[in-house]
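Now for one record:
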Amino acid sequence: MVLERLQCTAIIVTLNRPRHRGFHFSMEIRLSEWAFNGNINGSNEESSPKEIVFMKNNLLRIIGSSFYSLGMLYASYICIETLSPYAYLDRQSLMVTTFIFLVLMFSGFACSYSTLKDQHQKKLLMRVTLFSILFFYGFLMLDILFFGRFRGFEWVSVDTFASRLRLTVNWVPFRTISNYMSSYARGFTSRNVVIDNIIGNVVIFIPTGILMPLLFKGLRRILPFTGIILLTVCCVEMFQFISGTGSFDVDDIILNVFGALLGWWIHRVMRALKRKVEDGKKV
């Protein structure tokens, strides 16, 4: 019995954004038929190159969709676990968690991107991926800056405002940094404490400088980006002071803004290299 046509169905995620609605997009999941010729007796016709490419693209889309789904499920699991009152992400756990999530997301992106020919769909897929990473990164930032400290808020009151202002506020630039360095040199502070409070305050804001200009064109200029980051960091420090989850320290503002600007320059270099590669291909 000859099988002239074997129908296989594969779930393919296709992205479709109405051109008249700006940045709004909709994700449509549809079923695509995957057909090829053959028979059960072993004598089958060779598939044409177009059919082979079609089958390959469908397989890559299935794999890409699977990686995306695993990444989203993993991110949801981490978010739920982090909200537990007994959960806390230390530095090593944070690095491992972020690495696993990025591997899943970029694997899904690589598989799906290679099957797309339309530039509009490629840009839309990239934005969806970047927004997913930004959401996960934002949740981790909330856990690091607020929820991961004491798992409780001690809001400032009229009675405690004066004492908290005197004990937890530093207006002198580089005072806290120099105190950490001198304490470490004298052996009073461990290296991990210095890394977490100085290098850590720089590193955690580097992704902000990379992701925000990629998603928002207005932040690709240095002055608007610096203004937004400075305002955001000041609000974070103020909320930490009011809620009792941290202190208001001008050194934290300096380190956070420096980390974001470092990420912004990394993004700038990446765009310059991409432009150079594209110009070389045109030539």
